[in-house]
Sequence to fold (320 residues):
Amino acid sequence: MYKVLFLFFLGPLFVIGQPNWVNVDTAFGVLPNHVHVYFSNDSLNGKPNKAYYIAVPLNEKELDFLVAVGNGKRFTPTEYYQQHNAPLLVVNTTFFEFVENRNLNAVVNKGQLLAFNLHNIAGKGKDTLTYRHAFSGAIGISKNRKADIAWLFTDSAAKYPLASQVPVPFFKDSIAVLKKTMLPGNFKKWKMQTAVAGGPVLIQAGQINISNNEEQRFAGKQINDKHPRTAMGYTADGHLIVMVVEGRNPGIAEGASLTQLAELMQSTGCVEALNLDGGGSSTMLINGKETIKPSDKTGQRPVPAVFIISSPKQGQKRLI
Fold:
């Protein structure tokens, strides 16, 4: 149901072939109606791989889509799981900094903008008075359970983010703070009930189109670096897809490039997909159970925000 029926070729260096996704529902206890978990260990260009994704119907009224934040602190996904009444899903989301435990990307929960994108990046060396202004991709879910991926401008003085439905190239100037008046004309209010930003966007209109250069996120040759990954997207038939790829585990799972991650997300049927924070942050819990092995030697990395799917009737027998 969730497998795409065609391959998208970007050239012989990047083709991973059609991955074989195996249903592993029974490994994660009782799941809500029509929720399924899949696993693949098919190699990525000859390198060992382990990846999981969960497919969740957005219109399932028994499910709540939420974001939990640490409010100046960082917690492991397991700690968020324990704090929030053992939800169905907990997965890491935004990029962040370690000093103040601050999200560097937008977070929207219950319609409220809780964190903001970093739009102003100071230059270095001879360019210390120059600033790069970039727009990170985000995925949101509206009140009527529709998902969307867009590029955001966030302002702490505004109730809603502003969003562009097409990639926005970054630009440089000597102005330290990006202002609304400096935006292109295609930005509109983005009224989402739940949203998280990260970047870059991986899939647009069903095709792999990675906006890493526009977003200044893994720009240039960094697109080919392999790491543990976390990604979210959605299908044409209204399923949310959340995926994690294990990495930095030599001989077992070496991670994925952004192109490979995009191909994996496309293989699930995603019409739009977004990369989120990866590396040691990548962790996905289903009913409290880890999927991939976190790459940090200490285990799960504490993070300032996670995406949660809760199911008040999780114990209900799943329909066959």
User: Anything to note?
Assistant: Residues 217 and 271 are 21 Å apart (CA to CA).
